[in-house]
Design a protein that fits this description.
By secondary structure, this protein is mainly α. About 55% of the residues lie in helices and about 5% in strands. The strands form two sheets. The protein has a two-stranded antiparallel sheet with strand order 1-4. A two-stranded antiparallel sheet has the order 2-3. A hairpin with a 2-residue loop joins strand 2 (about 50) and strand 3 (about 55).
Length: about 140
């Protein structure tokens, strides 16, 4: 299984520098769609439903305080992505890669997995509820 840093590094290699928020949303969508297509998570790290959308805390800890993230901001990891993992990431980037960070954030706010995890919280209330793999699988499968 890939590491979230592998995914982030690959996305940045393909797309170039981007905002931290956009990177987080693209990582989220790679996880969601990989679960649908392969019936298994792409990476182990949990994704939390934060105010501005889904966030992988381990990745956030790495880029905390930075607005723009480049490939050099992501540490090298030993594990290589498989050709299937790259293919799935490429499919996600083909659809979502040209969207703005705000567009992606707004989209996640309109989708069940984030809304379910944020249930009971005010719109601007901080929270760290996990967006479950199951909720992603069920919701995004219904879209395919």
């Amino acid at each position: 299984m890939a590491k979230v840093f592998n995914i982030a590094k690959y996305i940045l290699e393909k797309q170039g520098d981007m905002t931290a928020m956009k990177l987080q949303k693209l990582v989220y969508y790679t996880q969601a769609w990989h679960v649908v297509w392969e019936e298994t998570p792409l990476f182990d790290d949990e994704i939390e439903a934060w105010i501005n959308g889904p966030v992988v805390p381990a990745l956030y800890d790495l880029h905390r305080g930075k607005f723009i993230i480049s490939v050099n901001d992501i540490p090298n990891v030993d594990d290589e992505l498989s050709s299937l993992e790259k293919e799935n990431i490429d499919k996600v980037l083909e659809f979502y890669g040209d969207k703005s960070s705000q567009w992606l954030s707004d989209l996640t706010h309109s989708e069940e997995p984030w809304m379910q995890a944020r249930e009971g919280l005010a719109p601007y209330q901080r929270g760290n509820q996990v967006i479950s793999i199951r909720s992603m699988a069920e919701y995004y499968e219904s879209l395919s």
